[in-house]
Amino acid sequence: MSARDAPGPGGPIAPTPPSDAAGSAGNRGLRRRAPSVLAPVTYLALALAALWPGLFTGHDTIVGNAGDPSLSIWALQWMPFALGHHLNPLFTDYLHYPGGVNLMWNSSILFPSLVLAPITLLAGPIVAYNVLTVVSMSLSGWVAFLAVRRYTRRFLSAAVGGLLYEFSPFMYPLYLLLLGPQRPSGALQGYGFVARPTSFVIPTDLQLFSGPSAVFDSSVYIGVPLLILAVVVAIRMRRRPAVLAAAITLLCAMVLALGGRLTLHGAATRIPLPWLIPEHLPIIGSLLPVRLMVAGYLALAVIVAIFVERVLEEPIGRRAGGLAIVAVALVPLIPTLPIASAQLTIPAFFTDGAAQRLPSTGSVLMTPYGKFFPDYPPELWEAVSGMAFKSQLGIVYTPGPGGHLVGPEMDPLGQELNAVGDLGTPAPATLSAGVRATYLADMRAQDVTTVIVGPSEGAAQVTRLMTELLGRPGISTGGVTVWYGVGALTG
Hints:
By secondary structure, this protein is of the alpha+beta class. Helix content is 44%, strand content 9%. The protein contains 16 helices and 14 strands. A hairpin with a 2-residue loop joins β13 (475-477) and β14. The longest helix has 34 residues, at 18-51.
């Protein structure tokens, strides 16, 4: 007789049915695992709903606005291309040819590019970029949920914190960073990316309930109701270590986001602030102060989640009032939905295989040649061509006058292309022998084999200039004008 069957004081003990015990344990395990599954699925669904118009609507549409994403899209293509061709993924001469670019000094998203390489190879860098935006947004909410869950017991309170963070406005190789080639110096971004005190409370056009005027530094907005709630919770619950630490983190992030000197009405004053010390340090000085609010929003999520946790412990009447306060505090952060998308200008020449016939040596001189023309991004055209050529263009940081240069070298020909193609200066009817010799020498220094004039407002004038310089008209194909065999003219 087993111990389970031994008679007790009132007779034999009836054994517990194994199936019931296993089922009960299974149900408990399912209930414990449910939040872990529900949270990431919820944040992913919300990200998809918010970003949907920019997804799956064509090979040339991206989530967000045109401009900065072009370099990220280029980086997504560069990583698998570099690894597949046994090239250094941290340095490239496919942009800013022939000097090249130290990618450790640029926003080259190297690790995400490696993770998303299979998607890039299968569907192209634009689809990979859209996937990256969805994944990064949903993962931000989920990871914030996991962080907040350490300080709360309830799923709902942690979920609110993660939701706040997901929709908040907003190291490999040190050798290459510190000692590698083509290292720029100085504060790369200048002084413009700082918060104004009013930026924390005045909504921008990125919020559903926008204010009368939008401000530049949109990534620091908190709103008056949420700021008041954070202050009250920090004071009333200051004895909780998590609340105190989060409040200090939020305060520090807000102060540092103001930059080294207080900015009022768009102009910097002489009033010094704490960021004045690190902004003069190497590397750290290139950080954008407003981006430090990413830590502030996480701290804010902790504060709100702990408050929700406390509210849920109250009687039903006070619980409803507390949740209403949370709703009022969070409503101003609701973004304008759906989140904007942009359709990029991509000539068919770079996607129909024609670019694959370009010479594998030397470089392609492309226009538009200027620095900041987000609707016509040449580095994006290079990326969607599958890295079929090299170019001296690219909105990247390289060494230059005063420590660094952003964009291509402005040699005499580059200055002419910038003036004619980007600034609206009419192309000269004729070129003197001296000017022609100078421009051809510039092309020879860049080892130019092909010239491509892409679509832009000044494309007609640039075509006229290049026809005069090269002595023959280009070939119109795939939305661009191409001059092949240019090396023979410059050699």
